Amino acid sequence: MKDKIRYIPGFDKSEIDKVRQKLNPKISRACNNNLLFSSGDGLYSGDYYGHSLKRSNLENCKFDNANFDHTSFCGSILNNILFKANCKFESVYMEQSTLTDITFEKGLHIENCNFSNSYIKNMSLDSSEIRGVYFDNCLLNDCSFTNCKIRASMFDGALLANCSFINCNMRNLNIEFATMQNCDLSGTTISYFQLPYIIGLFSDSNKKDSLYVGLHNTETIPIKQYLKDIMDAIIYFTSLEEYFPLVNLYYAKKENEIAYNCIFNGINKALLNNDIRMVENFCVLGQTYELLSIKDIQKILKAVDMRIEKERHSSAYNLLLSKSYKLKGAVNQNKSKSKLEIVINTNIEAERFDLVGKFCNDIDNIISTIVPNKVTTTYQLSHNSPFEICLTCIGITADLITLAGPLYQYISKKMKNNILITPELKEYIKNSNSMYMDSLNNQFDLFEQALKGKKKSEYNDIIKEFRGKIITTASEQINKDFALLVSQYSEE
Fold this sequence. Notes:
Number of strands: 20
Largest sheet: 8 strands, parallel
CATH class of the largest domain: Mainly Beta
CATH architecture of the largest domain: 3 Solenoid
Number of helices: 12
Number of domains: 3
Shape: globular
Radius of gyration: 27 Å
């Protein structure tokens, strides 16, 4: 469908000014618009205590001596904002917001604030005091917490990418199941009991050589000492049957086979408790350290589906189903991979779930025959009658292109009208293949040039670098999400 301009009625300035005057937000704190910040010079000060500023869209603003205590910015978009140190920022609600280029001036006190489920990029809180602040399930990219005092705060489930936690005291916070990618932890202290719950902490990408571990209220030990005495932590968490930290600890010891076993023991324990979120955490951890293969992921997802199916007639079924969709989305989030999505509208009624299983098994057999152990597949079922099946395949683009034609052909044969693959799809696959091969050949040429004049001892690093480039080349050339919509599968 081509983009086109769609008609929306407009209004002249006099009409707009009249309404704005009528709805003057200064009369009521329950406003949810930007009228409080419309002076045009971008510099504001004042008392906004208790105001509802939900869904605000602010850009290039400075706040000097402003009181935001108990203010709500939920669902807002803030870009290039400066909060001066004399601002008040207690009990501010900024959940589900998008925050970019935000600076909290040094010395600002931030307390009991909620940034949960927000996208935050390039935010500076250097030398700030942070107490009781929620960053759970946030995506924090290029953020700086240098010289911060962080107390009683939560980063649970957050993704921290390229963030600086230099000289921070982080021993009194919840950072379980947060993922760290290329973070600087120089001079920072993390609790002994929280540290092995962080995903990716022991990856080489994180700067942790000068990290400190808080053992008791006052005692700290360097990370090197922690690793030297790592068996103490292993014995402790083994006694509790806490498998998640054990994965991290055995990985740090380079005992990957035991770490791998801990993942599956932990998943089995989580499934017994219907804890799908915990399964997701194990999958993310295993993928981060490259401990889980595509075949392993497939096995785990099928085990989850089987467990949920046992709860079909229980009150928890719908909740478990929604969590499983989130799990499948999490394991499929790989920037180096592409996604093929096929939506199949069937005539299978709700009481014939066995036919759905048979159809999905047939598709799995096709995929395993054409590209064995190279593609991750998930199924999302709409349980309305008749069933709608959404098949998602994750892999490198070359493999997905290879699969697209055969899958479409197979599904077409199951259709009432025996619809064949369209000429448009054939042309798309042909062109995609051509672009992929051209890009691949270009990478090989660059690879050969890179090897010239290098010592054999340098080969491994060069090979590793180009392996990643070659794998991602196709994804860069072709749209990562390409969908084939088909309809009316009919069981023969």
